[in-house]
Agmatinase (Methylopila capsulata), 1902 residues
Amino acid sequence: MAHGYDAGRLDLPFVGVATFGKYPLCLDWDRLDADVAILGAPFDLGTQWRSGARSGPRAIREASTLFAFGHAGAYDHEDDVVYLPAGQARIVDVGDADMIHTDTLQSHANIEAAVRKILKRGALPVTLGGDHSVNIPCIAAFSDEEPIHLIQFDAHLDFVDERHGVRYGHGNPMRRAAERAYVTGLTQLGIRNVSSTAREGYEDARAMGSDILSVRQIRKLGVDAVLERIPAGKRYYLTIDIDGFDPSIAPGTGTPSHGGFTYYEVLELLDGITRRGTVVGVDLVEVAREYDPAGVTSILAAQVLLNLIGRVLHNRA
Amino acid sequence: MAHGYDAGRLDLPFVGVATFGKYPLCLDWDRLDADVAILGAPFDLGTQWRSGARSGPRAIREASTLFAFGHAGAYDHEDDVVYLPAGQARIVDVGDADMIHTDTLQSHANIEAAVRKILKRGALPVTLGGDHSVNIPCIAAFSDEEPIHLIQFDAHLDFVDERHGVRYGHGNPMRRAAERAYVTGLTQLGIRNVSSTAREGYEDARAMGSDILSVRQIRKLGVDAVLERIPAGKRYYLTIDIDGFDPSIAPGTGTPSHGGFTYYEVLELLDGITRRGTVVGVDLVEVAREYDPAGVTSILAAQVLLNLIGRVLHNRA
Amino acid sequence: MAHGYDAGRLDLPFVGVATFGKYPLCLDWDRLDADVAILGAPFDLGTQWRSGARSGPRAIREASTLFAFGHAGAYDHEDDVVYLPAGQARIVDVGDADMIHTDTLQSHANIEAAVRKILKRGALPVTLGGDHSVNIPCIAAFSDEEPIHLIQFDAHLDFVDERHGVRYGHGNPMRRAAERAYVTGLTQLGIRNVSSTAREGYEDARAMGSDILSVRQIRKLGVDAVLERIPAGKRYYLTIDIDGFDPSIAPGTGTPSHGGFTYYEVLELLDGITRRGTVVGVDLVEVAREYDPAGVTSILAAQVLLNLIGRVLHNRA
Amino acid sequence: MAHGYDAGRLDLPFVGVATFGKYPLCLDWDRLDADVAILGAPFDLGTQWRSGARSGPRAIREASTLFAFGHAGAYDHEDDVVYLPAGQARIVDVGDADMIHTDTLQSHANIEAAVRKILKRGALPVTLGGDHSVNIPCIAAFSDEEPIHLIQFDAHLDFVDERHGVRYGHGNPMRRAAERAYVTGLTQLGIRNVSSTAREGYEDARAMGSDILSVRQIRKLGVDAVLERIPAGKRYYLTIDIDGFDPSIAPGTGTPSHGGFTYYEVLELLDGITRRGTVVGVDLVEVAREYDPAGVTSILAAQVLLNLIGRVLHNRA
Amino acid sequence: MAHGYDAGRLDLPFVGVATFGKYPLCLDWDRLDADVAILGAPFDLGTQWRSGARSGPRAIREASTLFAFGHAGAYDHEDDVVYLPAGQARIVDVGDADMIHTDTLQSHANIEAAVRKILKRGALPVTLGGDHSVNIPCIAAFSDEEPIHLIQFDAHLDFVDERHGVRYGHGNPMRRAAERAYVTGLTQLGIRNVSSTAREGYEDARAMGSDILSVRQIRKLGVDAVLERIPAGKRYYLTIDIDGFDPSIAPGTGTPSHGGFTYYEVLELLDGITRRGTVVGVDLVEVAREYDPAGVTSILAAQVLLNLIGRVLHNRA
Amino acid sequence: MAHGYDAGRLDLPFVGVATFGKYPLCLDWDRLDADVAILGAPFDLGTQWRSGARSGPRAIREASTLFAFGHAGAYDHEDDVVYLPAGQARIVDVGDADMIHTDTLQSHANIEAAVRKILKRGALPVTLGGDHSVNIPCIAAFSDEEPIHLIQFDAHLDFVDERHGVRYGHGNPMRRAAERAYVTGLTQLGIRNVSSTAREGYEDARAMGSDILSVRQIRKLGVDAVLERIPAGKRYYLTIDIDGFDPSIAPGTGTPSHGGFTYYEVLELLDGITRRGTVVGVDLVEVAREYDPAGVTSILAAQVLLNLIGRVLHNRA
């Protein structure tokens, strides 16, 4: 019996407590034993427009159960591959980092501690934001790891240094990452139109080793040429701001920017990245349920993550 | 250290996987060891107007975390009581009964099996619907128990016998209950205006031992007089259709009916019931997230249930 | 066989094209033969705040099907009466008056012509707005009828004479009605707080024979005392602005005003009115689906209308 | 006078009872006399994720009135054709098949009976779902007809055989169709990413004569090459699952899947199909108003259907 | 000409840029010259459940224009008073305090500076939150003023001292206020059911001079008796948490709590307070547009504030 | 100091009263002194389907503040240009034209007077609709100006002459414009599928000098070829109906039509237009907040307008 519907439960997508992908819940992090650990980081004190990104982790978990058909894995007929084969994908949901309202630094510290714990336990950390500032502690947690190359999908450059004392908001993470010695480079994909980063920010980014490409530039180059620009064989940390996608499929976010990616544009890039090097960390940020009345944004986030994780595990094996 | 915020996590309401009240998840039902077991029954094939009640269990779980301030229990200054004191309320979330799409009888059978298991393990079953037809298997599960008196909060009598072969829809549960030998009587509270039950249904209900009171009649009688009409010292099964409440606070349901209960009207009756006899089973049904854009309906459901459970445990002790 | 579920269809509320109460559609007005004719008047060019009332007729029709359990009539256990007994209530939906965008006077003229036709065919006209200005042509259509007394349920006095040339907007209808010789008086119920009518408007209204009562004043007086203030034995035209109800149950309207009526407060007054004289015309206005995400406002409108029509027919017989 | 605005009513889209395309209502099916019959099948007991598809028929009818400018037919300047010329398109709305809550088989039987009746009366059946399981009785109704080739637009293969006894849910219809002798082949268009059908289902489908193409594969092939793969000159039954479209334009459905069709991709395929053979039946399924806050999904469904019907009639003539 | 519609513009509520009540905008605070100054404080980093309160100021401004019929003032027929007579009510909108994302203390400091400026210019500060933590800087700004008595309308006691270092969140403001020497007492109205404040918080509050009353207790006492408990002739600072109102009329807030105030219950208390002493400061907090799909919550906030300001000015004169 | 965050306020997008782009408010039109004047025209009496477009001006203003990062201007890294450099772009918000409910002609006259005033003061008028009929008075206001060429982005031709007396509705503006002597030609872009304009309308349009292109035709031609068809060096008036865009990014409009433009397709055409001649007037119409739950439509409108204005000013300089 291949996948056991008969012996067990049917477990339809809408049934049961919503852990990520209906994978087991592991709240005792000292006992974490898995290939992939899903961590929630429901922090939105770093937003400059609409708040709400704290709802992201629960929204994505809920949506992810749609793809938890589970028993037979996820068959993709175009690739002719069964991703996430039942019984082989060792994925757990480790719940959320502890958030401290009013306190950015302590909340970030708690996220960093959680990611460090996951890394220590040997699992791939996949962090569900929260606003993009949660990337700052996620990257900070890699300080004892081998160097990483950062690949960002986003509408915005997020390269502001400091304004009015703010250094840890959702406009700052790529700057903070670029400052770290163990971040050897950045590839920033989807950047377009106006944002909080001024001209100087772009100049600084390029000076600090960033490769910046807009959606239109990527479409002109094609997937392969874009992949070629990413240093091969590296350890990649992927940070996916849902607003890198077009507002038509990702309305549920704080700062939508028109002219974004379609689903398969990103999936094909992600697929290529999993083949080009090693994915050592992932965050997906800025999903806000408040602006997602039809749920398509959290469904997008879940669909991207489960497909990405499936490809990471498949190509790693 | 009274309640341990210092030693542990702050665990704000919006943080973490949404189990009911943030109580532990117990998916291995053979190891269930608790005073109260929360079971989801996300079934909505029995609805006659808007579907969506399958979203109830997840919606209520999510809302219930608002009330999971937890560490210090739930202090009610009007009663001067700390309900659900931390460390003493042994409550678990047992996940959902298995649902079989297209198949009413099998889905109901799975709910019945789950409630039977909870009863066997000595816990109080609290079932989250799902439409009101899930009450049918909940009551069926008591066939080996001591007799029960059924107390219903609802806008509708739900006393239809059979039409076009339908005997297990959400218009039938009270009829099905009244037919059982171990249901010694019914108190039906909040019944008002027109519904699917015709005049004959009311006549049958009264003939089969039901006491039917509208919201206006209850307001005229007062809480004490209503409680007096309920047989004292019995084992009570409570079935709470969220549409018993006024649509102003419970819009998120399939068949809203204007002129319903306010929150404290029901809470005061529930409080009295927990003092008048023994609550041996509870279901709360017909919450549908699709029609609850501000979330007030699922918050109401969670607020009612946590206050009810707190009083059941407090008054039992 | 009392009401024929067996022989025919089950016809659940959500099934079928949404005519009002699932009553027959009669688009050939020359063949109209009924006791009650439901007419849509989807006009909202008269609004001063949020538009959208043109969606009212379709929204109310849709909601009314919830109450179309039909085969057995509408049994009210508090009154112990079956209202709208199947086969006896001769009600038809005559569709909508023709609307001419940009053109208030022509749209109103078309409403007036439709109501005149209904009156000529001997049916009770029940008009679904549309904004409150549709009351102007409805009243105009009674110019050849016996005198009428106008009873209004509303938050606002709607007694503005003219501003910037506007005489036919939704702030003017009661003034326009009071000017007509065949309107012998007005009872204005629910009027509260600030609105577009200035102090002079109130003075004019009282001078022109209006009795103005707020919700709080009505609560203090009680239903019977309020009914006593309405001239007995008259022909009543009822105009029900949904914003007379509290925004908690009627959010779906252009200009909500807090502190309004509950459902039974209005139903009890309506019930008394149907006993105190003859209802010769009804309109229910200002339902706007755009602000009614849970549908409770259109459900309220339908519930009020079907209960009112049931009582009109029951008490007339 | 070409199209008679002057003599009659303006009949703006928002005016009047919402029958499909404002075409006449024919509830006496024995008198059905038309080229095209629109049937509602508001069934959603077959869904595995979000319910709500029972709202589809009314939502599509309402949206279709936007395209009922009517008097002059539907002029498409790109084709330079007036589709659905007034007075020539003999289309009727026959209301809904009778639904029996809790009972899948009886509801399906009623749908089958209705489609059989339409076929018997010589009209083209166009069925508005409801979830995709309503395709099962639609196809069953063709058992006495000449063989058909089935063309599906969908994100999901819907080729599950049986699980936990379920054979008539919304994951099963293409399997059920493929089993029938008079279904000579299947063309399955838009199939992508993970769904409830496992790898074996795809293998079975291909073995049973199905041609499966993803959206990306179709884009690479082009419209003409795709049309070439469909057997020419056949009798085609078209089943259009709205989730074949991209969630950006079809959020209002139970199980959205990113990476779907745009509007014109489908319209151009549909146009080609109406020229390549004879369309003998159509269903459009899985529209759920609950997840369609801006109404774009039901507008899409109506726009697709009216354009399809126009082309069927135009190319047939 | 009393109010000049003829000479000027009609200025319907939906017309024009949304300043509070359509009163003039004064962004140069050094030139502030008014009786009342409306200040936005769009801060929501202090929330423990749903964020979104940063949208409050704009939402309330937008809603307030509904009540800007303006030219003739606001006539209340129950009081027979024209409040806010045109040309006499010197009210200005001073825009918002500057917010610094990620930074609670600096954002609070900016609010405090703004309120100090308003006080220095001799105007009554009316602050639009933002979450309830914005009350902390509002009260801080009174350090150089005569003592004040604080009157709170709220579901929650907000009397938490400190947890995990948090002292300036939305659960702390009443504690922070009670600690100040110039706050001579607190009256806390509407407090009910469970919240983040534990039993010790209530004990501390009473020990520090607070009078705590639930909604039910207030209903039993009556308006006059409640007013009697407030020290007479004092300088009152009013802090109105919109969640003091019932969720039925105030769904648009972060932490709704069932069983709250109706509109007139609060208005009558506010009216009495304006007669019993001097209102020297006001804040209205926790309105969140994200959960207010029909806009009734922001309409409530605007209606309460304009009625309150009208009574403050009327009774002061 | 280049852009002065340090000296002044941070002024995050969500902070402050929502004028367009946070530019200054100028309500004294006799003192208007600017390069660009933003005028609201909240008129929706001309709509034939869903109303609501009166909410457009406020919705667009609110959304435009997202792009008011301001201090450093709007840097577009693809163009390597800082548009709208701080201190150089002289833009003001002049509030709204006065609307007269029920009265189309007077409301239009007020819009015309406002645009005339703007033209007289030497500023570029940018009008925010309102429905597309507001284009009629906008064009009328150019009667004393040099001739203009009209460029329209729209799904619909809007070329109806007259029906039932209606000449100034939202289906008529392009016909009205074409009739004017000083309109030397029309370019109509994006026109597709069925609309209220019948075949004769298209024939008339072409006869009166219109160039009509569908979205698909434009895609085939490419941006440059389309620009070539527009007479060079002319004075262009741009009228942008938001429904020219695809419903996926512009759901918030009265009459969505599938198959529309993406964001960059329009931006590239607009960019080319600002280089090909002189833009002398702009309107953007048909945004309706009621159907825009995630706000993406008003964000699109604001993003298009600010990018357009930036390019007009940049290329003019």
Q: What stands out?
A: Residues 20-316 of chain D form a domain with the Arginase; Chain A fold (CATH 3.40.800.10). The longest strand of chain D covers residues 278-285.
